């Protein structure tokens, strides 16, 4: 396993292809680096090692769990718990699950495709994976195509490049063209795993393509946008002040990919399955990170209530109980998804579809409400809090301190820090990004509905209705 | 294990003390008998035997799982699944969990009390339990006291009997007085397990009493109310037409209880713990039965949609997905509660408090909405459906059939049966009772809030907020 | 204006064509008669006369407002207020608005049709209306066709009779065939006003038919279903104990209608407009009756809270405030609909479409939640309350009274009466019918969405978005 | 009436006392100035003049309606409509209602106080008002005290200054000390109207103080925080790009106020009434501005749907209908509040308490949900949209344009502008501020509950429950 310093070295060695705000930025200056650092640092913290490290089933070596292919229900539970623990410290997205979630999906689908078509994707994949684990690589997953007209299929778009596609097959590899949107933390990833975003028809094989490309491969262009918490004077700063995250529109401007990095190429029927399976793993990851977001919100809300002297009020308790429910319903179903997981022929363990999807959906439909609850408990101050410069100003600082005071036991400084943090997570560009991530990340509620309805055994339930209503007789002797 | 016929014999032998509608009824005429019959019949159905029967840890004999004291996470999961399966056939409450839930709680608390006070409750309890299992006994739990003024404690009421209490201690036993409300299916139980309903103060030892009494003991008076689905002509009847359930106000009018049936008597601090632990087991049971209620609602709704030709409409799918989510969030957290369960010194396995409570709460806050969804999908007909007598009438029957017709593939008879069933579960006295049970059964949402807030580690979450906001430093080296 | 006794005489004179529970019933025995009686009695109560009576714009005579064609915003406001006042005493549906709402719609559409087609419907209608007012007639509106396959149009059904249609035109009148569902209180109406239920295409003129038929005309068959509150011993009875309401599947088995009672016949484009306009008037009526339902629910909930000693608890207040909001948002928009109403060329005043529909929709999406709130405040007792026979029983009555006691100030009798009433409105067949009426009566939420989206000026709002986003320039000099 | 240029001159003449980000800023550089400019410009736009100007009842001169004391229901309706119209162009808060709302409240309370105490506040107020109107003054209202420990009264705080209070009475005026929080747009106001924030006890006369102070009076210190939409290159800019708003913690550091500007001083019982009445006027203003916010959200959402090709999808329609309902329920109740308004002895017209409060509450409890709906319709792009600099970049601009394209009819530029606007209103610091304003501005939902419960005639509703349940007889002859 690497240290964050080794990771930084690797980033520095990458060619500049990150476009942001009119500049081409070096990767060491990208917002979100501290989040990825955390995934290295935490493997050194004793009390979390049982979660953050594991043993590779490929090599038997100790690896960062963010590089692990899940082999058992216990693996899935450990991944979920690690995700919650690390995302708490991140105060939100922990960035590194996307890559490994896509690799878990590929471990299954490459095997299935080989069985069906006699291809050799799975062995290629395993070789790739061994290196990935050995190097403690940071990967990201580029899935969401830009999609053009939303009601048209890839093959129906005016411009065929609006879904990533193979434009040329060569002896030693393929050339791909297109763009992937919403690519969180992509400039901080060494490997970009690109996979399809939807089900494909037989004639849409060109769009059935999965590849791994180095983040700085020729033709890859990362057009980025950063979101940050406000900068703050050091004496009043929080853990993440001035830091943030980055999103990428990742453009594949005719990128060459050698065959050993191609994991699907033309097998249309596996395009959709791969898309769905990545989503499934990623939704399972959400059963870890989304409760962590709720942890942050509820802990902050409870502390605000304590600092304002209203912690024991009935309506505060009922709001906190709502936040707890939001977190634990999601987390509990993540556990259930591991309990009901299945081992595939590839050896990889796949979590239960229904539990993952009802959990992710529940998180998605509640996220704005959670912010609403925090806002209600906090009152208006996070939107109107004076700046740190005034808090420490010789001219008005004492007055600001005097008037921010609430309960006697809590200093004006602590009050300020807490409210500045609430302001960061509810009244900054980051706040909006986290709300969007809560709704759409890993699949919007409407996508989960589709996944649920596709999978759920509703015929069994209709059968029950026929028995109860007398339309059909119960086929065994009861009642 | 008994057959339902043996059970009926036992009921017939009981002395008449059931008051209902101005009559004293024999137990064989009480609505709800078919539900309890089901719990005997289903032990004979091959495909469910692995769920409905198990091996007694006390005697090693095969027993009905409704008589089992849970010893492992697997036990808890099997109980949950059995509850869902049987409650589906019941179309709702399966009646027999209350008794065994209270006995599971007693198995833990009697042991704890003995450790603390040197009492002998646990051995008594185990003796009682062996007989209970051997006889395949039907028990119920009488918990909710009538409570009088809601803001006053037991010792503060104008009438001290508004919570069940010990009025006399004798050499061979005790005399109890009071009344327990909302005692579902009590007249069909052979044993009534009475336990406290709330936390008690030191001076409230008289109210800290747990006993098992035969349902027809002298002084026991069951003042009952029945709710039924409408009676229907045989050719149009559903599985439960004309049947229903029964509720009891169970009065203990100075009932003598011999010591071997007394499991708590005066140890005030265990009164509340027993109350809470029964609730916990019962809420865990709800993670089985409540999804079954959702199964019934969603299966019915999906069949209505199919029979009306609208099954593929987008808004139908999204409503069904809501119903699925309601069911599976609750069920998933029941599984998680088993995974995170703890073994107590008594050997009994106790499910996780937070997962059980968020699940039960979620069920409770959603139940009316589930009926709303069914109502929206069904349209107005369940409220205005002609009677069965007109459907088969020589005079107007053909016209009724003509005008109830929807899609070609479904006969007017099947349409009628289905809508009559919807009418039964949404527009009958039973419907309201099921709505109330969904909200209040096993504890209202506000009670779950209390249980959650009492248990949840919010200090850990506030600590997190202190780290993130910079009020305190993270005590290890990350980020 | 008539007395209820005169109205009863009229009902008794009608020929028997009400089929219910295997019998042909006389109209004096139909549940719901007391509700219609109320609409006569209340015109005699001094404090409500300004609401319940008005002056006919046709004859200048004093009439029951339930027979009025609205001529002004003030008329619409008075109708709304009368509806709330009378529906309160009815404890729900006041039954008589449907008829007059359809007549208001006809007053407009007959005029429009005459203008467009040179027909003579409006004069006919005015003649009919004069008699209707003079006789203080009870009318009902038969709108909802039985509809068959829900995704097929009238002309696409396997059986063309699934929407009411003209099957023969004669010299002196027409013959209609079909059936109308959900026809509340129809057997208690002297006149049935039948109108179309949806938009019709040019080739669907046969289904564009509006007529007034006497309730006992040859060929009319009312297949009915009653719902009632429980009967109760006189000393414990409430205002409506043992009473209820009636729904009819109204079959037109080749009914002859003379021309002077035909108000639309073949003019397809006015079929949909008539359907929509009736719905509009009826939704405006809901802005009166639905707040009355909320009044009943909130008053009952507040009294339960008072009788239990918990009236001052914070969560009770917030639940009551939710109920108040539900009522007054709907009522307020009814007022706004009158303020923004329009006078049509016919002279009739038409309420605003958007305000009526957002109000009706809000009522519909909240109704189950309102019952939920009452259920939460009431606790489980309404579902488990002993029968009145036990309350007065010499054997157990004293015990029941002892144990139903709550706060000292309220007698067990009053407690019982109140809880029996809660049980009536939440755990009876009536409760379900009221929930369905709340959702579907006058149009389901999905129908209101359609009406809103059809009418609302969204283009103006998109224009605003273009200005704000810089896509287009604001065309005047601001900012 | 002034032009915005004259207003700017006035601002420039004010002494510098605005502290923000470590600087003392001149008022011409404060974010939000464009919003106030709008209130001057729009009085010149012909089509809105009937709304934005009116005739002073004091002087008979034409005045800006933002300076008007409402004299009739029509005045209230016009104010509501003006507020919606202007707030639309502002894309949110129109800033100038706070001042005039407090002056309306003062017009009533000064009169009442004079009647009760023989004081001379009302005449003083009228003099002040004439000048205010003549000068077309911009006022703001400083109400929310900083409050300290939330469960302690003003007189119970450790520091008595945590609520604004009189610290000295002099011959020619008074000295006040304290601070008011959440003072939107205060640095852009020429007059600050300070009034109490809560009910006061008899011994709390020192805190019962209402004054008008010039924004740059000695001792006044405005500690400010700005929130802005992102700056954008001119060719892609929207109407408000780079602009925003400002909030102030307004400190009264021993400010002297001459008697002619003192409108309450010591009359404790009127402190709470004044607080409540300002809130009432301000909540009525919300019935105008909050629907405007919904207009912006829904127009934007509808345009996004159109530009993505999904406008006709069912779930889009139902989401738009939800947004329409949110807007129009609030707006409709604002109209009803004017219809049911009352004329006070002062001549000022006061809107209905219940309708204003249910409307404001409804807006508050829905605001986060409205953003959620926009987020769901928009998809993830607003959170990940590349910067404008890349859109116009010679290096990657063409690729960005290629991949942002959706439906053929809409250019990439328009797509970009629209999404950049969505990003502005949902993923910027402004977005959070607007969410907080939506919840807390003018009073949080919990404050509206209190106002509603205090006012609503619940006794009448309980009476109804007594009649219906048979506890009491209906006192007149019905049914």
Describe the structure.
The first copy, chain A, has 16 helices and 14 strands. Chain A is globular, with a radius of gyration of 24 Å. The longest helix of chain A has 41 residues, at 268-308. Helices cover 49% and strands 16% of the residues of chain A. The mean pLDDT of chain A is 97. The first copy, chain A, is of the alpha+beta class. In chain A, helix 7 (268-308) packs antiparallel against helix 8 (314-339). Chains A and D meet through strand 7, strand 10, strand 11, helix 9 and helix 10 of A and strand 10, strand 11, helix 9, helix 10 and helix 12 of D.
- Biggest β-sheet description of chain A: 6 strands, mixed
Structural class of chain A: alpha+beta
Distance between the termini of chain A: 62 Å
Radius of gyration of chain A: 24 Å
What is the strand content of chain A?
A: 15-25%
Compact description:
Four copies of one chain form a homotetramer. Chain A has 479 residues and is α+β, with helices and mostly antiparallel strands. Chain A contains 16 helices and 14 strands.
């Amino acid at each position: 396993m690497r240290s964050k310093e080794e990771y930084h070295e690797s980033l520095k060695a990458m060619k500049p292809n990150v476009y942001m705000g009119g500049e081409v930025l070096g990767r060491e200056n990208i917002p979100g680096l501290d989040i990825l650092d955390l995934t290295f640092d935490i493997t050194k913290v004793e009390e979390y090692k049982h979660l953050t490290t594991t043993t590779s089933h490929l090599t038997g070596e100790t690896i960062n769990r963010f590089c692990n292919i899940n082999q058992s229900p216990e693996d899935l539970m450990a991944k979920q718990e690690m995700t919650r623990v690390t995302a708490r410290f991140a105060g939100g997205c922990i960035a590194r699950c996307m890559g490994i979630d896509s690799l878990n999906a590929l471990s299954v689908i490459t095997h299935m495709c080989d069985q069906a078509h006699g291809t050799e994707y799975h062995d290629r994949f395993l070789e790739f994976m061994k290196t990935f684990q050995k190097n403690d690589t940071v990967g990201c997953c580029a899935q969401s195509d830009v999609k053009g007209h939303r009601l048209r299929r890839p093959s129906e778009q005016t411009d065929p490049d609006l879904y990533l596609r193979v434009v040329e097959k060569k002896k030693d590899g393929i050339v791909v063209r297109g763009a992937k949107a919403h690519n969180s933390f992509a400039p901080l990833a060494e490997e970009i795993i690109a996979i399809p975003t939807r089900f494909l028809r037989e004639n849409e094989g060109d769009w059935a393509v999965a590849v791994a490309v180095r983040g700085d491969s020729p033709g890859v262009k990362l057009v980025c946008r950063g979101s940050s918490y406000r900068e703050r004077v050091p004496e009043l700063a929080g853990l993440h002040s001035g830091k943030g995250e980055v999103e990428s529109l990742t453009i594949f401007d005719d990128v060459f990919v050698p065959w050993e990095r191609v994991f699907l190429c033309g097998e249309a029927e596996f395009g959709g399955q791969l898309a769905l399976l990545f989503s499934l793993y990623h939704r399972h990851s959400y059963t870890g990170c989304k409760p962590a977001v709720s942890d942050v919100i509820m802990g902050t809300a409870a502390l605000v209530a304590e600092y304002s002297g209203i912690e024991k009020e009935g309506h505060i308790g009922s709001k906190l109980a709502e936040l707890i429910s939001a977190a634990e319903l999601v987390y509990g179903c993540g556990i259930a998804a591991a309990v009901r997981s299945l081992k595939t022929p590839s050896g990889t363990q796949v979590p239960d579809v229904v539990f993952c999807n009802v959990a992710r959906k529940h998180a998605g439909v509640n996220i704005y409400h959670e912010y609403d609850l925090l806002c209600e408990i906090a009152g208006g101050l996070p939107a109107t809090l004076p700046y740190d410069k005034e808090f420490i100003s010789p001219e008005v600082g004492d007055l600001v301190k005097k008037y921010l005071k609430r309960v006697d036991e809590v200093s004006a400084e602590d009050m300020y820090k807490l409210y500045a943090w609430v302001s960061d997570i509810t009244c900054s560009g980051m706040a909006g990004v986290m709300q969007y991530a809560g709704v759409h990340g890993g699949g919007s509620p409407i996508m989960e509905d589709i996944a649920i309805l596709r999978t759920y055994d509703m015929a069994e339930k209709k059968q029950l209705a026929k028995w109860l209503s007398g339309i059909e007789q119960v086929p065994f002797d009861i009642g």
